[in-house]
Amino acid sequence: MSEIAATADSRRLRAWLLGLPLAAAAWWLTYTHLPELADATVAVLDLSRDTRLGEAVHFFVYDTPKVLLLLVGIVFVMGVVQTFFAPERTQALLAGRRLGLGNALAALLGVVTPFCSCSAVPLFIGFLSAGVPLGVTFSFLISAPMVNEVALALLLGLFGWKVAALYLGLGLLVALAAGLLIGELRMERHLEPWVRAIHLGEAAAPDGSGFSWLERFDAGGRHVREIVGKVWPYVLVGIGLGAGIHGFVPEDFMAAFMGRDVWWAVPLAVVLGVPMYTNAAGIIPVVEALIGKGAALGTTLAFMMSVIALSAPEILILRKVLRWPLIATFVGVVAGGILLVGFVFNAVL
Amino acid sequence: MKRIEVLGTGCRNCEVTYNVIREAARQAGVEVELEKVTDLARIMAYGVMRTPGVAIDGKVVHAGGIPAPDTVRDWIRE
């Protein structure tokens, strides 16, 4: 590297090191004063929270900045964390692991390894041909999309840390158990034959072990632009819908068919959720509003998890490498796990 | 002439990467042989698990996501 480039880099690193604490302070100050800001906005618009419109507007102007702030914060941190976990490294960590411990590790790594659903198939083949067992690979493939940072940010913002932690824990548990079960069923024969024949070349891509802190911070910034830049319209639409439900749908309206006494609500939520595909950003504000109207938490969580973790497009992509029996098992096991989570939540809470 | 391969199964980011490289080469006035590789077996043979990947003259220089414009300019110029 030339000397000029080196000085430019060190200047940019200084800018990050100075800017980050400032940004964090501004972030915290705004985040802790959101109720006042929302009250002020409602007052400026000459509305009252006693009216339906006023309540809906208050919901919107309180939740929108809150969710966006959390999203930016968590996505930035995840962007930096992910530079430590390139898929090549995760693959090496998982190769040759036994079922059990390997599944637990895979589920955890699924949370922090950068993952894009368009890479699902190459990743899947790459893992298998590097000697990662099928069941362990599935634990990774289930946890990576389900326990995603956007869902966590939103749950944290709208429901508090307890629900967010439960979601994280149960998501990991479903990924762990489903992978374990698929591994025990010895379903390797249901892979498309050409998949087993593929030989993975030597990992030639940079594996991320040589990142400088400047590159890690840059990656965090890029991650924010990429993710938040993509999901913010969904967040706005979701919160708008949520605000409408919050202000205009009568109390306990949802209790009749999504309450905890309705036993068929959880299976129905999963059946409806599986073919649907939306990102967490759009669905969670709606979920919050539904719960405010008497829907049971377990039912709504089950709906959300099935929407995020299983989707028709994803299944079609996987069909390229898996035969139907394995796909059916995959969908069945994950849906079953989500079902269980829904029932447990409804029974306990 | 450089042979640049964009490795990816045809997702949107792969298209974008292909266009970014073609555009950069055009602006630099450098002729390159640019190819989209969508065959999974060939992609895997490069050891690329994150798409889109980029290989120049058979060597992987990038994997996962759209490459930064500066990086692309460096590839073309080198």
Q: Mind telling me which CATH architecture of chain B this is?
A: 3-Layer(aba) Sandwich
Q: Describe the biggest sheet of chain A?
A: none
CATH superfamily of chain B: Glutaredoxin
Mean pLDDT of chain A: 80
CATH domain class name of chain B: Alpha Beta
Q: Structural class of the helix and strand makeup of chain B? A: alpha+beta
CATH topology of chain B: Glutaredoxin
Tally of alpha and pi helices of chain B: 3
Ends distance of chain A:
59 Å
Poorly predicted runs of 5 or more residues of chain B = none
State the secondary-structure class of chain A: mainly alpha
Give the end-to-end Cα distance of chain B, rounded to a whole number of Å.
Answer: 12 Å
Q: Would you count the extended β strands of chain B for me? A: 4
Radius of gyration of chain B, CA atoms, in whole angstroms: 11 Å
Strand content of chain B: 25-35%
Question: How many domains, in number, for the residues of chain A?
Answer: 1
List low-confidence stretches of chain A.
none
Main interface by residue count: A-B, 27 and 24 residues
Largest sheet of chain B: 4 strands, mixed
> What's the shape of chain A?
flat
What does the overall shape of chain B look like? globular
